[in-house]
Amino acid sequence: MSIEKGKINSRQLLFLIAGFVQGSVLLIDFTVGITEHQTWMVILAGLALTAPFFLSYVVLAKRFHGMNLVQINDIVYGRFIGKAVSVYYIFFLLMTLSFNIRDVGELYITFLMPDAPFIFLLIVFTVTCAYAAIKGIEVLARVSHLFVVTGIFVIISTFILLIDQMDFSNFLPFFELPFARIFQGIHIMSAIPFGETLVFLVIMGCLNNTEHMVKNTFIGLLIGAISLLIVSVRNTAVLGRTQCIWTSPSFQSIRLIDIGTVLTRMDFLIGIAQTVLIFFKCSLFFYALLISLSQLFGLKTYLPLVLPLASIEVIIAATVFQSPVDHAMITQNAGIIYSAPLMFVIPPLSLLIAKIRGLPKLEGDGET
Amino acid sequence: MIFLLLIYALIIIINVPQLIKRREWRELTAFFILYTIAFTLGLMYVLDIPIPSPMKALQHLIVDVLGIKYPQ
Questions:
Q1: Residue B23 in contact with partner chain A when CB distance is under 8 A
Q2: By CA distance, what is A34's nearest residue in B?
Q3: Assigned domain for A309 exists
Q4: Residue A362: how many CB atoms within 10 A of its CB?
Q5: Residue B50, preceding bond cis, omega within 30 degrees?
Q6: In this structure, is residue A362 part of a structural domain?
Q7: Does any CB of chain B come closer than 8 Å to the CB of residue A318?
Q8: Which residues have C-beta within 8 Å of that of residue A59, sequence separation ≥ 6?
Q9: Is there a domain that residue A4 lies in?
Q10: For the domain that residue A58 is a member of, what is the CATH number?
Q11: What is the ipTM of this complex?
Q12: Contact A304/B30, CB-based, under 8 Å?
């Protein structure tokens, strides 16, 4: 039984993935403090490392066409182990959504509206995401290209406006940092912007056909990765080593834009773009969480769960970390370690088991 | 506190009558499970009762108990 009635096509999926990865543009700051001027390398290495795993998500979704993650787990691992694996995924979705909601709150408190109550910002943002999730995946998919175009426009325009302040010697020397830090940076990159695309294991069940699915999903991933790369190159070229001392290097670099003293203080552009992109990412996370939870409970619709779940998310987001420093410290260690099996072990393993057991069996074969 | 009670009363008014009318008992049960968790967390937050962070527990388990961490 499918909870979502809406259908999307593979071109819309391309924009959904691109917008989702662009939504992590704020989160590359977690890596900057560790990998400094080599962040651009870490983004490319993270992409290369995650690509085979991302392929496993797509192939798995293609093999179990029309099914979401919870249904796939039930078929592959059986009813009880499947449910346990699904609960692990749901915990990941619940926590990651709350981190992203908190990111928006911290962004506003630190840079845009320092006097606003933190909880109020979280409530407003979460209710907006809940509204988008109520509208369903079809509506989100129909507007996805607008989010991607907005993101690309802001990223490219700020890059062009900052060209005169760029110093490309800031990228030197190459391979200066110890391997452990580079490895940690690659792990953060492969887990946060790229590995989180496992939410599409829930969303890809709504695809109306699987034609060009692999190609379009990879183009989407590539658009997102290139956006992150441009942001990273811009920040390093403009700020150099000082980028490590700022809370948000993107905001700091955009503040340096000064075109004839007319075009200045353009950090509001970044504020708008990041809010829009994180909103899109959080809406997709919220939607995936609702579908997974409803499937786990065996419900016909996810709508009754929206408001209670939004309330839970707000409280978790407000209390899960004590400060932005605490947030960064935990994400850079436990945050990326506990989610590694979900991204890099379970999907390829599910695919392997499905292949060996010949799943999913057609109706009439005696099984699902 | 009053604001919290108003919000949670509103959530019940929006969802429950429709669910009862459509006789969706499973949905109603799932709704009340999440609603109870949400209300408890909301109440703890408003009354300034510390809410345990699942990430702190995970950090303790992974870093302190299992010893898996990146060198600082």
A1: no
A2: B72
A3: yes
A4: 9
A5: no
A6: no
A7: yes
A8: A214, A351
A9: no
A10: 1.20.1740.10
A11: 0.95
A12: yes
Q: Do A95 and B19 touch (CB under 8 A)?
A: no
A321 touches chain B (CB under 8 A): yes
pLDDT at A2: 65
CB A239: neighbour CB atoms within 10 A? 23
Specify the range with the lowest mean pLDDT, choosing from A138-152, A170-184, A321-335, A353-367.
A353-367
What the block records as the tokens of A337 is: 């370690």
- The identity of residue A184, as a single letter, is Q
pLDDT digits (tens, 9 = 90+) for A221-263: 999 999 999 999 999 999 988 888 887 888 888 888 888 877 7
Question: Residue A196: what pLDDT?
Answer: 94
Q: How many Cβ pairs closer than 8 A exist between chain A and B?
A: 93
A134 lies in some domain: yes
Q: Which of B31, B55, B62 sits opposite A305 (nearest CB)?
A: B31
- Specify the number of domains making up chain A: 1
Using the Cβ of B34 and the Cβ atoms of chain A, whether some distance falls under 8 Å is answered with yes
Residue contact A308–B35, C-beta within 8 A: yes
Q: Is A87 on the interface with B (CB under 8 A)?
A: no
* Dist CA A38 CA A144 (whole Å): 31
pLDDT digits 0-9 by tens, B39-69: 999 999 999 999 999 999 999 999 889 888 8
Which residue range forms the structural domain that includes residue A130? Answer: 10-354
Taking the Cβ of residue A297 and every Cβ of chain B, the question of whether any pair is shorter than 8 Å is answered with yes
**Nearest residue on chain A to B50, judged by CA atoms?**
A319
Please check whether residue A17 is in contact with residue A224, taking contact to mean a CB–CB distance below 8 angstroms.
yes
| Residues whose CB is less than 8 angstroms from the CB of residue B72 and which lie 6 or more positions away in sequence, other chains included | none
Count of C-beta atoms within a 10 Å radius of residue A244? 16
A residues 182-221 lying closer than 8 A (beta carbon) to B? 183-184, 187
Is B40 part of the contact surface with chain A (CB cutoff 8 Å)?
Answer: no
Tell me how long chain A is.
368
Q: What is the DSSP string of A210-238?
A: -TTHHHHHHHHHHHHHHHHHHHHHHHHHH
List CB contacts of A175: < 8 A, sequence separation 6 or more: A38
